[in-house]
Amino acid sequence: MSFWETITGSDLTRQWHRFDARARALPADHQAAWEQITVHLYPYADFTGRNLTPILDAALSLLEEAAADGQSAHEVFGDDIAGFCTALAGGAGARTYRDRWREQLNSNVARKLGRLGG
Questions:
Q1: Where do the structural domains in the chain lie, given as residue ranges?
Q2: Is domain 3-117 classified as CATH 1.10.1900.10?
Q3: Mean pLDDT computed over 60-79
Q4: 18/3 Cα distance (integer angstroms)
C-alpha cells in the first residue's frame, strides 16, 4: 500500500467495491445477512475502517461457502446476527468508536480542567 492510498483511503474504496460485487453474487437471504453484518460491525471500526476489512472478508467468505453448500443464512447464523458480530469484534466488552470518542473527550476535559484549576 502506498502513502497516497493510505492517506486517501483509495485502497479501502476498492476493497469495499470488491465486497459489494461478491455480496451481489450471493442469494437474497445471504445478501440480507451481509447487510446486517456490515451494520452491526460498523460501530467497532476505527476512523478508517481498516481494522474491519479482514473481519468482513472472513464473514463474506463464510456466507459464500454457505451459499455454495446450499445452506441458508439462517442455518449459519440463526436469529442472532448481532451476537455473531459482537463475537467477531472481540466479545461483549469490545470497544466501539463511541467508547474511544468518550475516552478522548473525558481526557481533553480533564486536561483543560487541570490547567484551569492548577
A1: 3-117
A2: yes
A3: 94
A4: 21
